[in-house]
Structure formats: C-alpha cells, structure tokens
Amino acid sequence: MSILQQQSDFGDMTGLEQLRALLRMGRQPNIGATLQFSGVEFEDGFAAFEGTPGEHVYNPIGTVHGGYAATLLDSALAAPSTPSSRKANRIRRSS
Questions:
Q1: Structural domain includes residue 86
Q2: Which domain holds residue 33?
Q3: Run of H or E including 39
Q4: Could you tell me if residue 92 is inside a domain?
Q5: pLDDT above 70 covers what percent of the chain?
Q6: H or E element in which residue 38 lies
Q7: Which of 12, 51, 64, 66 has the fewest beta carbons under 10 Å from its own?
Q8: For the chain, what is the domain count?
Q9: Greater confidence, 67 or 4?
Q10: Is 7 among the domain residues?
Q11: How far apart are CA 68 and CA 38, in angstroms?
Q12: Long-range contacts: 44-50, Cβ < 8 Å, 24+?
C-alpha cells in the first residue's frame, strides 16, 4: 500500500496518531518494509525503531551499507518531531 493510500486512511489524525495507528494495524511506512525495519514505539518526542540488517543492505565489501544506518537514524530522529497537537502536512500528488 502506498503512503498516499495510507494517508487517506488517517483522516484528520495528527502525525503522532498516524504513527500509532500504523503500529496498531501492524503496518509500516514503505521505507521500513523495503529495508526491513519497523517502528516499535511512538510517544510525544520519542520514537523507537528496530531492524536486523540482512544481505539485502550489504555493500560490495560485505558490510552493512551506511545508507541503511542513515535511513534508520533519519526515521528515529524525524518521528519524534511529527506533530502531535496539530494536523501533519500531507503529501499531495500534483496533476
């Protein structure tokens, strides 16, 4: 399911409410599915993600690609700043 479809499911939820709803439904944003990591806890100002990197994220020399760590860090740092008391900005598809 695309993030645009997921957003249409959330109506007027705040960003924090959306993240918690995804967790309750057992769903993840597409990047988590792609890189096989998931959010495990979301609170106001706090987010926890977990994942075990497999060969799908190894670089040519056989170690975990830095992009995996950077993406996990990006998610962990961005999620706590997701608005909890106001509507989150929505991604809109242009015509």
A1: no
A2: 3-81
A3: strand 37-43
A4: no
A5: 77
A6: strand 37-43
A7: 12
A8: 1
A9: 67
A10: yes
A11: 13
A12: 44/16, 44/80, 44/84, 45/80, 46/80, 47/19, 47/75, 47/76, 47/79, 47/80, 48/76, 49/75, 49/76, 49/79
